[in-house]
Each structure stands twice: as structure tokens, then as C-alpha cells.
């Protein structure tokens, strides 16, 4: 994803002409647009960096790990269940900040860029799944290659949010989110979407009939990135898109932080309240899960933005430099997709050649408790990816699609 330059929480920044950039409204003059050369918003990069670091951490424990570093088997939510929705929320924000530069116009160039990114994201996801088979010698694994995964979901959600951004009037963002979640609620309510049984669950049956068993995830009754559960994931991305609008609003930095906090609090409360009827469930991406995780992401963003606004500890001068407090997470935040993909490929290589076992056994010889040894291994894996990212960061190499 392109990471647009943004500086919307700083006191002296040029605010986005929020009302003039949306479809159906008067266009802003070039003089009134947000400055393209403005410094990046550190808060967004920090939240993105924290999310990517956590994604790598929870995906790469070894053996037995702490329960909150594993996905909930079905209903409920752990810390592990926050990382992907946080990232998808950030995709929504980035989509807004990127497309506002073209004033959300559906030009040929813009549409080509949108579809190119979506296709590349999807193909990268398929490539990761293929590599997992190919490294073991099953190069022609296409008959049982998993179609869906994290990158593929990001691709579809980015595509849907981007097309909405350039074709729809943005005043319909909230109604669209509500409609998507309402339709999905009907699907899972009438179709036994909460059934822990692939034969009874409509989500599992839809994927089985459309794509076949061999192309799906097999560690739960439903594919957690399956087709029907992409509906609420699109709503999820649009909530991030809406947050991007808040970031660009023509109000003071203090008021922006307050507005994001208020919306985040309301969404969190709504999500947990709805969970009394529709339990939190990452596997099916339940409506309550959408609201709660987006709300928590907004609360965390408002907290980071508040710290950034009130202290110089998070400020930096240009891309590739920064304070000791900010840099550890900015390394991940500036090259998020590249480092995530690298971590997935590295994990496959480490597992195939026994490197994971060698590192873990070395750690376990010092740290006897299996769960703590697993956590140390995960941190070691994060550090290895961070070192690659740090080299890119210092050289000001930021890989985009």
C-alpha cells in the first residue's frame, strides 16, 4: 500500500480541505489542497509499526505459547485477535489518505493503480501459499493451493474501499457500513454462522461449494479469510476510511484527537454490547468483532496521537531519521507489507530447513519454561525482521506497491 504523506495532528500544519475533496462536492483549488510534501503523521506509522510487529510476533511462536498470543479457537478474543483487524483498519486510513491526493476522481490512471495494487496483493498472497508447498518439492501444488489468506483479504478490502472512495458520495460511508454489517448479520443468523460445524455453517458451505475443500484452510470449521466473511471485513476497512476523514478534518489537532477518541469509545462500547447477542469471533469476522476491534484501534491511535502532540519524544526529521523512542516501531511502520511478507517467507524457510528448531533449542537450553522460551523465540524472530527493516529505514528505502 502506498503510504501517503500526512501531517494532520501538528499545530501548524495545513489542514486538509475535508469538505471539498469528496465526490459530489466542489473541488478544492490546487492552492487549497493538503501539501504533498508535508511530513508524515508519526502516529499512523507508529500504530502501523506496532501492528506489524505484533503480527510477526504472534505468528511465530514455537511450540506451546501463552494463550493471548494465540487466536481464540472460536468465540471470544485475545490480543492475537487484534493484530489483523488493526492492520485492516490502517488499510482503510491509508486508502483515504492516498486517494485524497487525486481528489477521489475515478480517472483511468487512478483506476489502473487501484486494480494493479489489488491484483499484486492477491498474487503475493497466493505466492506465499505456493512457496509453502514448493519449498518441500510440491511445485505443481495448484490442485490443493489455498486460495484465501491475509494478503488476499487485504487485496479485496482495499479494492472495495478504493472503488467506493472514487465512485460513491462519501456521505454514504456510514450507511454503507451499517448495510454491510446488517446483511452479514442476516447471513450468519439465518445460516448458522456461529455453528462450529462445517456441514451446518453457511460460511463454510459457501467456500466449500465455490472453491472446494482442497483450496481452503483446514484448522477450523470455517476459513477465517473466506469469501462471505469478507463482507464485514470490507465494512471494517470503510471504518478505517472514515477515520482517515477524521484525520483530515479542518479542526485543531486537539479536537481531532478528541473526536477519534470519542468515536473509538462509542464503537468499542457498541461492539462489546452487540457481543451479548452476536459473540466476538475472529474466525467468522462477526459484526461485534468489527466494531470492537475498530474502536480499540481508534482508541490506541488517539492515545499515540495525544503523546505525539504533547511531547517531542515521537517527532522526527524526515523519513529515515527519528528519536530512539519512535524508530523501533517506525522501522516496521514504514515498510509494513514488505516486512510482513518477508516474515512469512522467512518462517517457511526456517521451518523447512530446521533453523526454527535450532534457534528454539538454543533458547530453551537457557529458558526452561516452554511458554517463555516460545516468547523469546518469537521476539528473536521479530528482531531478525526488524534488522532487515532497519537497514532499509536508514537507507530511506520504502517499498511500495
Outline of this structure?
The protein has 13 helices and no strands.
Number of helices: 13
Low-confidence stretches: 1-7, 10-39, 317-321
Largest beta-sheet characterization: none
Classify the secondary structure makeup into a structural class.
mainly alpha
Query: Which range best describes the helical content: under 10%, 10-25%, 25-40%, 40-55%, 55-70% or over 70%?
Result: 55-70%
Strand content: under 5%
User: What is the string of helix and strand elements?
Assistant: HHHHHHHHHHHHH
- Rg over CA atoms, rounded to whole Å, is 21 Å
Shape: globular
Distance between the termini: 6 Å
Q: Tell me, rounded to a whole number, the average pLDDT.
A: 86
How many extended strands? 0
Amino acid at each position: 500500500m502506498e503510504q501517503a504523506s500526512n501531517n494532520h495532528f501538528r499545530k501548524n500544519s495545513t489542514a486538509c480541505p475535508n469538505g471539498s475533496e469528496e465526490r459530489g462536492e466542489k473541488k478544492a483549488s490546487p492552492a487549497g489542497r493538503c501539501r504533498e510534501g508535508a511530513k508524515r503523521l508519526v502516529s499512523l506509522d507508529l500504530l502501523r509499526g506496532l501492528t506489524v510487529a505484533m503480527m510477526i510476533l504472534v505468528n511465530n511462536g514455537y511450540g506451546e505459547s501463552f494463550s493471548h498470543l494465540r487466536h481464540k479457537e472460536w468465540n471470544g478474543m485475545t490480543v492475537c485477535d487484534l493484530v489483523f483487524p488493526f492492520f485492516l483498519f490502517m488499510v482503510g486510513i491509508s486508502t483515504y489518505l492516498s486517494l485524497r491526493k487525486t481528489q477521489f476522481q475515478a480517472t483511468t490512471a487512478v483506476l489502473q493503480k487501484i486494480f494493479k495494487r489489488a491484483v499484486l496483493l492477491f498474487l503475493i498472497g497466493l505466492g506465499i501459499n505456493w512457496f509453502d508447498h514448493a519449498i518441500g518439492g510440491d511445485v505443481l501444488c495448484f490442485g490443493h493451493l489455498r486460495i484465501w489468506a491475509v494478503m488476499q483479504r487485504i487485496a479485496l478490502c482495499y479494492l472495495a474501499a478504493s472503488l467506493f472512495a472514487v465512485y460513491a458520495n462519501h456521505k454514504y460511508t456510514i450507511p454503507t457500513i451499517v448495510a454491510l454489517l446488517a446483511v452479514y448479520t442476516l447471513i450468519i443468523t439465518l445460516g448458522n454462522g456461529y455453528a462450529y460445524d462445517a456441514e451446518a455453517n453457511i460460511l463454510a458451505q459457501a467456500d466449500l461449494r465455490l472453491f472446494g475443500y482442497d483450496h481452503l484452510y483446514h484448522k477450523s470449521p470455517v476459513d477465517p479469510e473466506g469469501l462471505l466473511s469478507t463482507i464485514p471485513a470490507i465494512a471494517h476497512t470503510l471504518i478505517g476510511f472514515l477515520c482517515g476523514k477524521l484525520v483530515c478534518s479542518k479542526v485543531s489537532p486537539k479536537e481531532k484527537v478528541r473526536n477519534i477518541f470519542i468515536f473509538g469509545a462509542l464503537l468499542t462500547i457498541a461492539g462489546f454490547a452487540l457481543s451479548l447477542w452476536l459473540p466476538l469471533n475472529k474466525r467468522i469476522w462477526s459484526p461485534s468483532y468489527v466494531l470492537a476491534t475498530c474502536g480499540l484501534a481508534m482508541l490506541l491511535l488517539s492515545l499515540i496521537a495525544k503523546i505525539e502532540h504533547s511531547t517531542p519524544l515521537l517527532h522526527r526529521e524526515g523519513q529515515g531519521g527519528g528519536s530512539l523512542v519512535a524508530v523501533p516501531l517506525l522501522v516496521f511502520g514504514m515498510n509494513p507489507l514488505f516486512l510482513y511478507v518477508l516474515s512469512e517467507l522467512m518462517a517457511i524457510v526456517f521451518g523447512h530447513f530446521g533453523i526454527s528448531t535450532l534457534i528454539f533449542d538454543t533458547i530453551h537450553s537457557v529458558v526452561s519454561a516452554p511458554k517463555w522460551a516460545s516468547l523469546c523465540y518469537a521476539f528473536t524472530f521479530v528482531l531478525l525482521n526488524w534488522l532487515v527493516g532497519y537497514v532499509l529505514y536508514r537507507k530511506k528505502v520504502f517499498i511500495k506497491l
